Amino acid sequence: RYLQEMGYGEPGQPLLVYSHYDTDNTHLHIVTSRISPDGKKMAFVYDRTKLAVMDLKSKKVKVLTDGTTTPERNGSIGFVWSPDSKWLATEIVTRKHEPYMDIAIINVETDEIINLTASGYTDGNPKWVLDGNAVAFVSERYGMRNHASWGSMDDVFICFLNQDAYDRYRLSPEDYALYKEVEKRQNKDAKSDKKKSDKKDAKSDDDSEEIKAIKVEKDGIIDRIVRVTPMSTAMTDYAVTADGDNLYYISRAQDGMQLWKLDLRKGDHRMVSKISGGLYFTSDKDGKTLFVLG
Questions:
Q1: For residue 254, what are the contacts with CB-CB under 8 A and spacing of at least 6?
Q2: Which of 103, 190, 199, 251 is most buried as measured by Cβ atoms within 10 A of its Cβ?
Q3: Closest to 71 in 3D by CA, of 113, 99, 112, 32
C-alpha cells in the first residue's frame, strides 16, 4: 500500500527499494524503471534528476534530459511510455518556475521535448489515452490553488496530439455513432482480407498494427487542450476507459471518498458510489476492467 500511495508498485514494472543507515536520519530510496510496451527498452531515473533509456539488447544508455527540468534531487520523477514505445510522458519544470510543473512528451529516439501545457500552473499525472493520440492530465488552473500549502482542487484535461483525434472527440453523439459504425465495417473488411492471406502475411500485418507510430502535430497543440471535468475537486486519481468514452475519478469529500463517472460523449456526470479508502486506479492488460487501490 505504501508503494501504491507513492505511485510505485505497478504490476510488471521493476523497482528497487534500499535504506540508508549512514546518517542520523535513516531513510529509504526507491529507484523505479519502466519497460516499454514492445519490451525492447527500459526507461529509468539517472543521477536522481535525469531520465534515461536503455536498449535492452545492446545495453546502450541514452540520457534524455539534462537535469534542469527536475529541480528536486530525490529521484522522484514520474513517466509513462506511449503505446508505440517511442515517447515518454512526464512532468517538467521550465524557466526555473518550480514548484509549478508542466506536462511534456519526450521522443526517446530524437531526445525532443515537447511542452504540451506551458500553463504556469501545477499540472501533473499524465496518462496516454485514445490509443496514444492524446495525453490526459490534471491541473489546478481552474480550481483552488495550493497557496501557503492549503491544498488544491484539480480538473482533468485532455491534450490531443493530432487534429484527427481532436476532430473525432468534437463529433456529436449521433455523428460519432455513425463514425464508429463505419470504423466497425472497415475493421471487419480488414479482417476478411487477412483471412485470405497466408499466415506469414497475417502475422506481419498484426505486428505492424501493434507498433503503429503515434502522429504528433506540434502546430496548434496547445489549442487542442480540453477541460473535460465540469467542476474542480480534491481529486486523488482518474482513469479514461480504453474506448475513450468514459472518465472515472476519485474525489475527497467531507464525508469520505467518492467515485465519479463522466460520459465524455454525452456529458452525463454522476457519483457512482461512496467508497472507503480508494486512492488510485489500475486496470487489466486490455484496459477493460478498472480496479480501485488504496
A1: none
A2: 103
A3: 99
More confident residue, 7 or 85: 85
Whose CA is closest to 102, among 75, 149, 147, 69? Answer: 69
Tell me the per-residue pLDDT of 254-281, one tens digit each, with 9 for 90 and over.
888 999 999 999 999 999 999 887 788 9
Neighbouring residues of 79: CB distance < 8 A, sequence distance ≥ 6 = 34, 43, 51, 88, 89, 90
Q: What percent of the chain has pLDDT over 90?
A: 52
Look at the chain and count its residues: 294
Helix, coil or strand: residue 237: strand
Phi first, then psi, for residue 82 (nearest 5°) are: -75, 160
Among 19-33, 79-93, 103-117, 119-133, the least confident range: 19-33
As given in the structure block, the three cell numbers for residue 179 are: 463514425
Distance, C-alpha 211 to centroid of its chain: 18
Long-range contacts: 259-264, Cβ < 8 Å, 24+? 259/292, 260/233, 262/228, 262/229, 262/230, 264/169, 264/228, 264/240
Contact 80, 73 (CB under 8 A): no
